[in-house]
Write a structure and sequence with these properties.
This protein is mainly β. The protein is built from no helices and 10 strands. The structure holds FE2/S2 (inorganic) cluster (FES). FE2/S2 (inorganic) cluster (FES) binds next to loops.
């Protein structure tokens, strides 16, 4: 495993992201609620640049099978990444794919040391 200093803590505000290349691999560093996460910029659907997509929220659906009604509620504002190719959604805090249960963005350990953000591959 190799470690790479990719940013300073003060370089990114909450909600920011930074795209970087490490060992020929595109990585996206996200800052959300003061925490950093790093994911490979690769969508599990068809390999699109998922981490370059818009950051939004998502619609949660509740189904009433007796009444045959659907209720939609907007949630996770600022925490959902939308792949620019076909719109698959990913939860930024966990990397979970919201469009395909059980799938995730490839993630990488991140730590902060002396004001620097260090990603391990
Ligand atoms: S490649 Fe990302 S949604 Fe299709």
């Amino acid at each position: 495993m190799s470690e790479h200093t990719v940013a300073t803590v003060s370089e990114l505000e909450d909600g920011d992201r930074k795209l970087i290349e490490i060992e020929g691999r595109e990585i996206a560093l996200f800052r959300l609620d003061g925490e950093f996460r790093a994911y490979t910029n690769w969508c599990i659907h068809q390999g699109g640049p998922a981490c370059e997509g818009s950051i939004t929220g998502t619609s949660d659906a509740e189904f009433d099978r007796d009444e045959l009604q659907t209720e939609l509620q907007w949630s996770k504002e600022g925490e959902v990444l939308n792949c620019p190719w076909h719109g698959w959604e990913y939860d930024i805090p966990t990397g979970d794919c919201l469009s395909k249960e059980g799938a995730k963005l490839p993630s990488h350990p991140v730590r902060v040391e002396d004001g620097d953000v260090v990603v391990s591959l």
